[in-house]
Amino acid sequence: MDELIARLVAEIGIDQSTAEKAVGIILDFLVKEGPADKIQPLLAKLPGAEALIAKAAGEGGGGGIAGMAGGMMGGVMGAGMRMMSAGLNMGQVQSVARAVLAYTREKVGEDAVGEIVAAIPGLSQFV
């Protein structure tokens, strides 16, 4: 996951801590919303993913109104709100989501990621 975090810092211009939170939030979202039979093999191929998920899940919705709303909403919008409460703007949220899925495609394969995206309602419009 260090490679992905470094890419986000370099390409999107966010700090390492925010990048780690954002990746954890996205992976946590995939675990909660995606098909378990597809997510677990994906996570197995992404060393360090479980630690980022645990950290994101432990932080809950984040701070402030946006964090509370994200925690209550769930789904794609909830994950976006959680990332915004972590300090990202809407453009950065989309850029991070696209970068995480692109990285995942590199490591796991297009077919596996495509099946996950297709199984989560509304996700395809954001990535």
Strand content: under 5%
Series of H and E elements: HHHHHHHH
Shape category: globular
* Biggest pleated-sheet summary: none
Kindly state the number of beta strands. 0
Distance between the termini: 20 Å
Proportion of residues in helical segments: over 70%
Number of helices: 8
Low-confidence stretches: 61-72
Rounded average pLDDT: 87
Instruction: Give me the oligomer status.
Output: single chain
Based on secondary structure, the structural category is mainly alpha
Whole-angstrom Rg: 13 Å
Overall number of structural domains: 1
Structural description of this entry:
- By secondary structure, this protein is mainly alpha-helical.
- The chain has one domain (2-125).
- The protein has 8 helices and no strands.
- The protein has helices at 2-12, 16-33, 36-44, 49-58, 64-73, 75-85, 90-108, 110-119.
- Helix 2 (16-33) packs antiparallel against helix 6 and helix 2 packs across helix 7 (90-108).
- The two termini are 20 Å apart.
- Residues 61-72 have low confidence and may be disordered.
Keywords:
single chain; 127 residues; mainly alpha
Question: Which helices and strands appear, and what pairs or packs with what?
Answer:
Elements: H1 2-12, H2 16-33, H3 36-44, H4 49-58, H5 64-73, H6 75-85, H7 90-108, H8 110-119
Helix pairs in contact: 1-2, 1-7, 2-4, 2-6, 2-7, 5-6, 7-8
